[in-house]
Structure formats: structure tokens, C-alpha cells
Write a structure and sequence with these properties.
With 301 residues, this protein is an alpha/beta fold. Helices cover 38% and strands 11% of the residues. The N terminus is likely disordered.
């Protein structure tokens, strides 16, 4: 989900797809992504991003009896014990770095553990998915960012990046990567979705792809839960069930599939996968253990 702006994160009710109250009992680990509107680019992205990061920390502190912030491998080890939810802080869009590697180090100190290198458009790191006609990949600064993220123990997210940027990052990364929210281009021909070759290469790097619930990436405006299952099943058939997870994009989209209107509906995906013939072991991987494995590999002690 995208981190809330001026409202608290505990009980947003119908105003949001997800909050801390509804996480409990439904989701053990949630990525909270700080997203700065394009209207703040290029000069005020960092300022607005830092405001959101501080707001996020205030909310975690206020609700610390319900949710823990993930900063280290040790924090990951407590996930799933049923007492609290866990939050991993991410930034969606490397624009926030303003071309300065020291800002990356600062964000790490502030608790950020994943960065989506681009949003849809070009920044100092790479071209975005909507700049695919340029043929641009990672810049020299982008290569420096990937290297530094690997050294710090931050998860590189390749959602929203141009295809050439995807390949350049994958070739240069020294740790598994994720595509936190995208779907299969073979099922839905959208610029944000991945080709079969991209899915295979991500799996070969021991990365994980999160199937998003955004209808345009699934099948169109009339998408339902079955469309999510089809994309999960496609990845599982192509590379196996170890490299696919859930990347809902709750509160990052205006519309959701029928049957997945908010976070309380997440358990229905597990129930449906079991009915489709998936084993409990594989369902547990898809529902979260694959991403947990990746985080445990990448995030520092």
C-alpha cells in the first residue's frame, strides 16, 4: 500500500483498502510504500518524501503494540507468531534520491529497506516503463544505486522500470531482486507487465514477482479474483511456485477486482488456490513465504 498522508494508519475504514486494524489476522508482513505525487517533481520530491517517512514512523510508534517495523533479519524472524503485524518501509520512485548516493544512505538510516528504482517516468537512475521507446537502461548513477543497495541490505524493486533497465539491473545486481507489483504480459499485454523471458530471468536470480490486483494489469475493468489466480498460476506453471507472491497495490489504485475489495479478502486467495489443487506448502509460499525468503536473504543483520 501507499503510506497514508494526513490520516492515521490504524483504522481508516472504507476510506482505504488497508489499515493496521484490518492487517491483524489477515496479513503478517506488509510493505508500506512512500509515493510522492509527480506534481512535486523535480524540486520537492525529497522534502515531501521525508514528510511521509516521518508520518509513517509516527504512526508505527503510536501503534507499536500492534505492529513492528522491520529493520534487520532478526525482525523478520518474529513474523507469523500471531501477536503483531510487521511493516517494511519502501519508497516507490528513485526520484527521491535526486541523483545523490548520500540520500540513499540517509533513507537507509531512516528505516527504508526497499526502493522501486523508477516510477513510470525517467529519473536519474533509469527510464521508467512509459519511457520504453527510448531504449534507455540504467545510468551510471543507477548502477551505483544498485551496488550500494546490495551492500546496505536493501531490496531492489524493478516494478515500473523500462525493459532495458530491468535487464541491466538484473545483470548487475549481486542479490535477489523483486518486482513487487506487476503481472504477466502473456495474459494481459500492458507495458507494466513482464514478458515470459523477464519472469524466467527473475526466477533464475532467485527473485520474486508480486501479482498486483490493478484491473488494467489483470484483464480490464471487470477483473475478479479469478484473474489474480490466473496470473499466479501462469507464473507457477512457467517457473514454479517459489518465485511468485502477492503485490496488491492496495491504496495505490482506484479500482480493485471483484472479491478483493480490501485486505480482509486476502485469505480468499489461499482458499481459492487450495481449490485449484495447490498444496498447502505451495500456497504458503505464494501467500508470503517467498517474499519472506527474499527479505531474509537481502536485509542485513
Amino acid at each position: 500500500m501507499k503510506a497514508a498522508g494526513e490520516e492515521g494508519l490504524f483504522d481508516l475504514g472504507e476510506r482505504a483498502h488497508l489499515d493496521i486494524k484490518r492487517l491483524l489476522g489477515n496479513v503478517d508482513l506488509q510493505i508500506f510504500a512512500v509515493f510522492v505525487s509527480p506534481r512535486y517533481r523535480p524540486f520537492h520530491v525529497l522534502y515531501q518524501g521525508l514528510q511521509l517517512i516521518e508520518k509513517f514512523h509516527q504512526e508505527i510508534e503510536k501503534n507499536k503494540k500492534y505492529i513492528n517495523l522491520v529493520l534487520t533479519k532478526k525482525d523478520l524472524s518474529a513474523i507469523g507468531d500471531g501477536t503483531k503485524a510487521a511493516a517494511l518501509l519502501a519508497v516507490e520512485g528513485g526520484d527521491i534520491l535526486a541523483g545523490d548516493i548520500n540520500i540513499l544512505r540517509l533513507l537507509y538510516r531512516l528505516g527504508v529497506r526497499s526502493i522501486c528504482l523508477t516510477w513510470n517516468n525517467r529519473n536519474e537512475i533509469a527510464d521508467g516503463a512509459l519511457d520504453c521507446c527510448s531504449g534507455g537502461g540504467l545510468t551510471n548513477f543507477g548502477l551505483e544505486v544498485v551496488k550500494e543497495m546490495n551492500q546496505l541490505g536493501m531490496v531492489v524493486d524493478l516494478s515500473h522500470i523500462s525493459e532495458r533497465g530491468f535487464w541491466t539491473a538484473l545483470e548487475n545486481a549481486q542479490a535477489p531482486l523483486m518486482v513487487s507489483h506487476a503481472n504477466c504480459r502473456k495474459l494481459q499485454n500492458h507495458k507494466r507487465n513482464l514478458s515470459d523471458n523477464q519472469i524466467k530471468a527473475l526466477a533464475q536470480k532467485n527473485g520474486v514477482m508480486g501479482i498486483t490486483f490493478v484491473p488494467d494489469f489483470l484483464s480490464g475493468d471487470q477483473a475478479g479474483i479469478e484473474d489474480v489466480l490466473k496470473h499466479i498460476d501462469y507464473v507457477s506453471s512457467l517457473v514454479g511456485p517459489d518465485y511468485v507472491g502477492l503485490g496488491s497495490d492496495f491504496d495505490g489504485t482506484d479500482h480493485l477486482p471483484v472479491g478483493l475489495e480490501d485486505v480482509c479478502r486476502i485469505p480468499q486467495i489461499a482458499e481459492s488456490l487450495l481449490k485449484w489443487g495447490y498444496s498447502m506448502t505451495d500456497v504458503e509460499k505464494i501467500m508470503g513465504k517467498n517474499f519472506l525468503r527474499l527479505f531474509q536473504h537481502v536485509i542485513s543483520d
